[in-house]
Write a structure and sequence with these properties.
Helix 10 links the parallel strand 7 and strand 8. This protein has a single domain, classed as Rossmann fold (3-Layer(aba) Sandwich). It contains 11 helices and 8 strands. Helix 1 packs parallel to helix 7, helix 2 packs across helix 3 and helix 5 packs across helix 6. The longest helix is centred in the middle third of the chain and has 15 residues. It is an alpha/beta fold and 284 residues long. It starts with a helix and ends with a helix.
Length: 284
Amino acid sequence: MTQTADQKSTIVRAQVPRTLRISVQTLDRVVPGLVARWALRMWCTPTHARAGDAVPGSTRWQLPDGIVGETWGDGPRVYLVHGWGGHRTQLAAFVEPLVAAGFQVVTYDAPSHGDSAAGTLGRRRSSLIELMDAIETMIGAHGPAHAIIGHSLGAAAAALAVLDGTKTDRLVLVAPPAEPVEYTRAFARALGFSESTRQRLLRRMEVLAGRPLDRLVVPQRAAGRLDLPPLLVVADRTDKETDPADGQRIAESWPDAELRLSDGLGHRRILRDADTVAAVVDYL
């Protein structure tokens, strides 16, 4: 049984101190505009994951804008895109199998993530749009993409970048959210602010994104398109962070897509699962 974004709010809520929720609820009745501004700041502030194990044999580099990454191997280029609050080493399990299969692998930390410099919103803050732009920056700096493999919000960023015109021969989305802004429902429930304040938050998000928020809905954007690369969607039925039904929605809307579902791997362990990694490499 899958979970909706609203159902997942119970998971998020458990991580929010009760005193904070009470304070937000009180302020929301008096100064909802202030709560919406604060909520946007929180929404754009990722909780940073700890770096994983390094993979030896890389060439480390830094772009002029401060993005830091690594490259391994030679051959058709595969870009690995971590998720919100992630780090390039989270996809380390893909590196050696891809290199062994004859690919060049490029990983990097998104702006305000990992070892990279702050992005346009400042230190420790970022956005989905910035994650999308970073993919195009990487391809501009390192060369055409044979494939892009994205995880979580990085998967949504990869899909939306492709829908905006970024070129790649193949695309792999691991645990992708279909409609990232829909998760603001769980966010609002967890923090205790009202639906009217959530709507204020969405208006602020739209200004920040510089586009209507429905342009960030992957299935809606993909439906009816005939110019998209083949897609593999990988999701786990026990994922507690991204609804696995989102992956199914994306696969059903994409013109040439395969869906691979697993059980018991969750949101992050799926990145280290040998069968999952092998299936992705085989797809490429």
